[in-house]
Amino acid sequence: MDNLEGALALQSDLVEAIKRHVVESPLNRLRNIDDSPIWEEPLVGFADGDDPLFDLYKTVVGEFHLTPREALAAHVRATTGAEPREFERVGVISWILPTARETKLSNRQMTEGPSLRWNHTRFQGEEFNDSLRRHIVALLQARGFVAVAPMLASYFRTLTLPNGPTSNWSERHAAYAAGLGTFSLSDGLITARGIAHRCGSVVVGTTLVPSTRPYTQHLEYCPYPKDGSCGVCISRCPAGAIGPNGHDKVKCREYLFVGQADWLKQPGYIGNYAGCGLCQTKVPCESGIPRQNG
């Protein structure tokens, strides 16, 4: 599919399929709490797989971070054992799943760890996100395209580096490339629906028309780096892992797995750690792009 009209038609179908899955999937429910939706209506964006940003990520994130072409080629090798053909075009579909309002309200009240709704959103919500990744891959494959969700691929890895855990595919960086948001002092992605969300993406071997990126700088939506205003996430972090210089991933992880260990002893909490999300709630960027001074 090389023509613009065909690409736009495909993208329209993908947006509709993503939104429908959010509405219709039984996995998008807090089934152990009140069966209310985990995620609200998603944002969807598209990126050119050959966007120079993906090469830049090899410097910003690490040489190990895959470009979309590398991700697709690794998928073909892993599933067929053969060297992949050279794809004429590669595209990325990225989405944002905004956290339900009731869940954000519940987490605003917390000071040391997550509300029960937030904890279930972290784990059951990601189960849904995985189902959405598989759904979009299957839709594309049914139309004859080669597609992969890098987060679910056999080659996906999380590396432990001196500055904390880092993976070879970043959903937030894919979303940034697709025009969906910019980064924050806390390392989260501030989108038009805020910072309280999960991201997902799929890479496909065809032409996609890139979404407009309404920003030029990776911290553009966060007021703190510009003028020191806001910084609410600093005081919201119970681990002291957010400061004027950004997010300390080592401190953050230590708090999640050690400092919060007893949280999993509370009735109803699930997962291998409780979660947190305090820096994503009761902050000006919780549900939208914060107002900028000047």
Give a concise summary.
The chain is α+β, with helices and mostly antiparallel strands.
Q: Could you explain the architecture of this structure?
A:
With 294 residues, the chain is α+β, with helices and mostly antiparallel strands. It has one domain. It has nine helices and ten strands. The protein has helices spanning 4-24, 52-60, 68-80, 101-108, 116-142, 171-177, 224-227, 232-236, 249-259; strands spanning 43-48, 91-98, 147-148, 158-161, 164-167, 181-183, 189-191, 197-204, 242-243, 246-247. The strands form four sheets. A four-stranded antiparallel beta sheet has the order 1-2-8-3, sandwiched between helices. The chain has a two-stranded antiparallel sheet with strand order 4-5. Helix 1 (4-24) runs antiparallel to helix 5 and helix 4 (101-108) packs antiparallel against helix 5. The chain starts with a helix and ends in a 35-residue tail after the last helix.
SSE topology sketch:
Blueprint: H1 4-24, E1 43-48, H2 52-60, H3 68-80, E2 91-98, H4 101-108, H5 116-142, E3 147-148, E4 158-161, E5 164-167, H6 171-177, E6 181-183, E7 189-191, E8 197-204, H7 224-227, H8 232-236, E9 242-243, E10 246-247, H9 249-259
Antiparallel strand pairs: 1-2, 2-8, 3-8, 4-5, 6-7, 9-10
Helix pairs in contact: 1-5, 4-5
